[in-house]
Design goal:
This is Reverse transcriptase. The protein has 395 residues and is α+β, with helices and mostly antiparallel strands. The chain is 54% helix and 10% strand. α1 packs parallel to α5 (103-132) and α12 packs antiparallel against α16 (369-394). It starts with 9 loop residues before the first helix and ends with a helix. Bound molecules: zinc ion. Zinc ion binds at residues 200, 202-203, 206, 212, 217, 219.
């Protein structure tokens, strides 16, 4: 199903995206890529030997072996891998020998030929595995039962982020499987808690769950959550500034540059307004996040962003629209004859967003929308993982 050089057939990809286990499979895909890269491109005999020894040891001790996985998936496509030389090759059932450099085409052809058959065999199996894993499979379930979610975009980071660090993939996998060692986890799941206490170590108010640590802890609201929120929103904001001629060049998504409070030219004005306060219970960072006024087109657009827990995404959208009704009215009074529109940008903390959001951003930025959302997703994911890591260090 997953080619040794990391290619997934179109059919397979669609099917797997639909059932929401793409995340796990793409990790394997990256692992396979890594496996062949290790043996195929490290030309120094000493390095190859060291990698081989490591892999042999992994196989002998029954640990996960990248090479073994790579070989297994190649076999699914009727290809045998011969990795025991300095020039690894693929061999087809007809006996044709193909070098690593040309293996991409061979895998593509094999996937086209066997893709459907493999899908029919594997997809029900993966569905069953995820359903059985009540704790670890829960978030995957939520993903594929969420009809408003753009499921293909949800895991876009795995496919489109060529330089995605391996610790990011591993970290996301850990969060999806709810394996972060929270107090709730050590009490309920591993039963290693010594005092049975479940209250959050940082705020001491609420049970310490993954959802609480990553999105609901008041102790992190003004620091880590606010930073995650701003870091993602500024990507969209900078693009809008560019669109309206208020900026000449957009900084990269990972740049620490933050927007100025106000921008203005002869036709447009923009403001970035993040007042700092938190409401009780629900962690909020802002009143209204960004506003753009184009006097030539007679348009006002306000942007609101939040990064909720994955189950709260749809609710958040409704909440925002209701809450900002009076503000919209006020803006309509202030800018008479202008079209006033509110955009709720809700990207959950594991990078999922709705099909509706894709449409809204397309309305704002046209063809650039997809790339902007992908960059925002990378930013949210990176900062969520940063919160998870900080939490691990603190505990
Ligand atoms: Zn807390």
């Amino acid at each position: 199903m997953i080619g040794v050089l990391g290619a997934v057939s179109k059919d397979t990809e669609t099917w797997l995206a639909e059932i929401g286990v793409k995340c796990c499979l793409e990790s394997l895909q990256k692992a396979c890529l890594l496996g062949t890269a290790r043996l195929g491109h490290l030309r120094s005999p000493a390095t190859v030997e060291a990698v081989r020894e490591f892999e042999e040891h992994a196989m002998a001790s029954d640990h996960q072996s990248l090479v073994k996985e790579a070989a297994k998936y190649a076999e699914e496509l009727n290809i045998t891998l011969q990795l025991d030389t300095l020039n690894p090759v693929c061999v087809t059932t007809e006996g044709k020998v193909v070098t690593a450099a040309r293996a991409g085409n061979l895998l593509k052809q094999s996937q086209e030929k066997h893709g459907f058959e493999l899908c029919s065999r594997w997809v029900p199996l993966f569905l069953e595995i995820a359903k059985d894993k009540k704790w670890q499979g829960k978030l995957f379930h939520i993903r594929w039962e969420d009809e408003s979610l753009s499921i293909t975009s949800c895991f876009a980071w795995l496919k489109g982020w060529a330089t995605c660090p391996t610790h990011t993939i591993a970290g996301m996998y850990e969060l999806y499987e709810q394996l972060l060692p929270t107090k709730l986890y050590t009490k309920e799941k591993t039963q290693t808690s010594t005092d049975g206490e479940v209250l959050c170590r940082l705020c001491g108010k609420v049970a310490e769950s993954v959802a609480h640590v990553l999105a609901g802890c008041s102790s992190l609201a003004q620091t880590k959550y606010l930073y995650r929120h701003n870091a993602a929103l500024k990507i969209l904001f900078f693009e809008l500034l560019l669109e309206h001629g208020l900026m000449e060049e957009v900084p990269p998504w990972y740049s620490p540059v933050m927007p100025k409070p106000a921008y203005q030219n002869t036709t447009s004005e923009a403001c970035w307004d993040i007042p700092i306060y938190a409401e009780h219970n629900e962690v909020r960072a802002n009143l209204i996040d960004a506003r753009l006024v184009n006097h030539e087109r007679k348009e006002v657009c306000t942007i609101e962003m939040s990064c909720p827990w994955i189950e709260s995404r749809a609710k958040k959208d409704e909440e925002k629209t209701l809450k900002y009704g009076p503000m919209m009215w006020e803006l309509k009074q202030r800018y008479k004859g202008y079209r006033v529109e509110q955009y709720n940008v809700i990207i959950d903390l594991l990078g999922g967003y709705s099909k509706h959001l894709e449409k809204s951003v397309r309305k704002l930025l046209g063809a650039r929308a997809r790339s902007v959302l992908e960059r925002m997703q990378k930013s949210v994911i990176s900062n969520t993982l940063n919160i998870a890591r900080t939490f691990k260090i603190n505990t």
